[in-house]
Amino acid sequence: MGNRVILTILKGNQMANISSTINLKWITSTNTIMAGVDSRGTPIVIGITEEHEPLWRGLKASDLLLMSAASCSTYDIVSILKKQREPLESLEVSCTGEQSEEVPRRFTHIHIHYQFSGDLNPENVEKAIRLSQDKYCTVLNTLRGSVEISSDYEILKLKRE
Known about the structure:
By secondary structure, the chain is of the alpha+beta class. The chain has 2 domains: about 5-50, no CATH class; about 60-155, GMP Synthetase, Chain A, domain 3 (2-Layer Sandwich), CATH 3.30.300.20. Helix content is about 25%, strand content about 35%. The strands form 3 sheets. Strands 3-4-5 form a 3-stranded antiparallel beta sheet, with no helix packed on it. It has a 3-stranded mixed beta sheet with strand order 6-7-8, with helices on one face. The protein has a two-stranded antiparallel sheet with strand order 1-2. Helix 1 (about 60-85) crosses helix 2.
């Protein structure tokens, strides 16, 4: 089965549907290692091996959710700041997830911290974060309602020599 992305455009007042398909394959019988391929054909290794140290050989599946939330929001924020002609020089993001102790250990809270560098207008930064989290970020908007989501930011001004 190949990778595919389907875009359905409907006329009138109906919304367009976008469908994405990923593929995942369990690759060994002695480990829980999987190879995944996203809808654009980019591969990733997910899972653990119990035979060797370190225990984790691929990405942890629950960490992928945090990475998805942070990267989706970051993509939006960078795009918005560019449109605002803000002089963004760098952006580093950390995303922390709190999980319940009981199985299935669902996420109860996700916090995203944005660290911007550049001579940025704080009002534009706040607007970009708000737009991403409330309107544009698919991942955060999918999680909203079942997971508490919070964020904060800081702006580091780079010193020029």
